[in-house]
Amino acid sequence: MGRLPRRQRVAAYAVIIRDDAILLSRLAPRISSTPLWTLPGGGLDHGENPAVAVVREVHEETGLRATVAAQARVYSRHNPRATQGQRPADYHALQIVYEGWVPADSPDPHVVEVDGSTAEAAWLPLADVLDGTVPVTALVAEALAEHRHARLQRVAAYAVVRRGTDLLLTRVSARGHQPGAWTLPGGGVDHGETPAAALAREVREECGLDVEVGDLLDVHDVHLVGTAPSGQTQDYHGVHLIFAGTAPPDAVPRVDEVGGTTDAAAWVPVDDVVEGRVAVLDVVRHALGL
Question: Alpha-carbon distance 135 to 275, whole Å?
Fold first, then answer.
């Protein structure tokens, strides 16, 4: 028997995880006669950048607009006796796998490409994929074994601003982590910005108030895995500098920033926080010594 024809294919895929679910594509029956799920993605067109190809393929297979990280992992699979249709071949696949994410408010996935290799797209429980309840390709298992969430450490400054028995708080919007909860006014310190300047800027954006930034009261930190406003799942470490702040006694807070992670600002009775009548983030309880 003569040597089989050689076939090489380069394809790009994305690991897209949101909370406890992963976005997967089910292979069409002509590709797999039994249900089999794989990462969204596919072959590169001639001359196409892999990062561009994977965004295109994810949209064709799931209808969602993805963003991918700059780095990727490459897997090499060689099957010298593969069968493609009715034709045996010496098959070599290079599979480029990116970390990807889609906006948190994305619609439900659906297949856009007609007569392609994908029959269905869905968010599936990550636990079911990891324990084998959901049948997946070797690529999914291998990629998840090496997957690590993007790590982000963020330094932020927050203010404890009191007016009598009230405390100035801001409410987390749908774009933020734990939407609907209340937190101290403040936010991230930009590169090269002093914490006091960052805090004054953030309070102005979130509350429409000019505050006088006082002494550093405490440092708080939080470590969690959660979904960022971009939709990316992050291993997040927040370091929070808590300052004393002073605002005019007749100040009426209002949110000036549009489309941010704050959708309301108000004077909130401290007793409501202490008694649990208002849901707050841990940094508020920490600042109040609760």
Answer: 48
Does residue 84 have a pLDDT over 80?
A: no
* Integer Cα distance of 169 and 267 in angstroms: 6
* Closest CA relative to residue 269, chosen from 286, 254, 282, 284: 284
Mean pLDDT lowest for which of 6-15, 95-104, 198-207, 254-263? 254-263
Q: How many Å apart are CA 2 and CA 4, to the nearest integer? A: 6
Shared fold status for 6-146 and 150-287: yes
Q: How far apart are CA 20 and CA 106, in angstroms?
A: 16
Residue 200 has φ and ψ, to the nearest 5°, of -60, -40
Name beta bridge partners: 90: 6
Looking at residue 66, the DSSP 8-state letter turns out to be -
Question: Which tokens hold the place of 253?
Answer: 């807070």
Q: CATH number of the domain at 6-146, out of 3.40.30.10, 3.90.79.10, 3.30.565.10, 3.40.50.150?
A: 3.90.79.10
DSSP state of 20: T
Residues in CB range of 268: below 8 A, 6 or more apart: 166, 167, 168, 169, 182, 278
Q: Could you state, in order of their start, the residue ranges of all structural domains in the chain?
A: 6-146, 150-287
- Fold for 150-287, please state it: Nucleoside Triphosphate Pyrophosphohydrolase (3.90.79)
For residue 115, name the pLDDT band (cuts at 50, 70, 90).
Answer: confident
Bridge partners for 83 per DSSP? 88
Half-sphere exposure in the Cβ direction for 258 (13 Å, CA) = 0
> One-letter amino acid identity for 125?
P
DSSP state letter for 192: T
Neighbours of 249 (CB within 10 A): 7
Per the CB < 8 A criterion, the answer to whether 243 and 213 are in contact is yes
pTM of the entire predicted model: 0.79
Report the alpha-carbon distance of residue 290 to residue 288 in Å, rounded. Answer: 6
